[in-house]
Amino acid sequence: MNISIITVGKLKEKYLKQGIDEYLKRLSAYAKIEIIEVPDEKAPEELSDTEMLQVKQKEGERILSKIHPDAHVIALAIEGKMKISEELADGLDKLATYGKSKVTFVIGGSLGLSSEVLQRANEKLSFSKMTFPHQLMRLILVEQVYRAFRILRGEPYHK
């Protein structure tokens, strides 16, 4: 399986990079995985609704340009479906079984995802009703994908 994670902005925090690198190394035994960073749109702290929409649209265009046409897209969105780890594992297994070997997860910027990206998504996934920094979501996502492969192989994982 080829997994891409498209994310907005550069990761600056060293401790998050170290955690992500560790899970990417572990995941390499199960799947080909890549993280694609697209630039975030520079914007002032205080934005009007119109300016927020423009920022999300510009970031959305960058995201959409990186999505392979054949990819099954899973957008991380607060309004998405919450799943337990076993359901995520089962979903990835079904995708592989039915020939969807390219899976792309999308993590938006601090303002979220554009409507165009959400429309392109085959499914929307939520990890919580709480809001997390998008940089931290990278680490959480790669850990959950790693856990999903461990579950699918019947290998032990921490519950």
TrEMBL record:
One Pfam family recorded for the sequence: SPOUT_MTase
Entry GO terms, CC: cytoplasm
CDD domains tied to this protein: RlmH-like (cd18081)
EC number: 2.1.1.177
Positions that bind S-adenosyl-L-methionine: L76, G108, F127, S128, K129, M130, T131, F132
UniProt function note: Specifically methylates the pseudouridine at position 1915 (m3Psi1915) in 23S rRNA.
Quaternary context: Homodimer.
Protein family membership: Belongs to the RNA methyltransferase RlmH family.
Protein name per the record: Ribosomal RNA large subunit methyltransferase H
Species the sequence originates in: Cytobacillus solani
Gene name of the encoded protein: rlmH
